[in-house]
Design goal:
Shape: elongated
Structural class: alpha/beta
Distance between the termini: 69 Å
Number of helices: 4
Largest sheet: 5 strands, mixed
Radius of gyration: 22 Å
Strand content: 15-25%
Strand order of the largest sheet: 5-4-3-7-6
Number of strands: 7
Order of helices and strands: HEHHEEEEHEE
Length: 165
Amino acid sequence: MSRAFINEDDLVESPFVPPRADLPMGETNYVTPEGLEALMKEKEELLARLKELNEGEEHGKLTAVKIIHIELQMLENRILTANVVEHEEQDKSEVRFGSTVTLQIGRGKKTRKLQIVGVDEADLKEGKIAFTSPLGKVMMNKKIGERVVLKLEHGESIFKVLEIE
């Protein structure tokens, strides 16, 4: 067959777009109000990039447009399935989604403050862990003074809940 009869668009491979943060199948997509706000801002930024590409020159545009469309599709799914949990309305006597928890690490004086958030919001550098993470799961429903035991491959880490905000 002559190359004259081949559609050039068919020759472009689908680009690899890394998946969003893992949300296990069947798990509710809980987000904080701030998390939903961040998702909406991300969507605005992607739409702005897409508009810029559509107005720009043609070179290399097709792949970039495809990537943004895929990212928008994944993002839109997260937004549509978001279940916003207002932390202010929750009982602060035990750890819940959205809680900020101060933990004592081991028996020492070292502490760490962590907030339990949605999978798209999680950022350990900012002290935010996903509710689906191993530590997030074992912290749920704990009260001040209770121990949190995180089982690891080579032993376990023990924390004590000092404060719940």
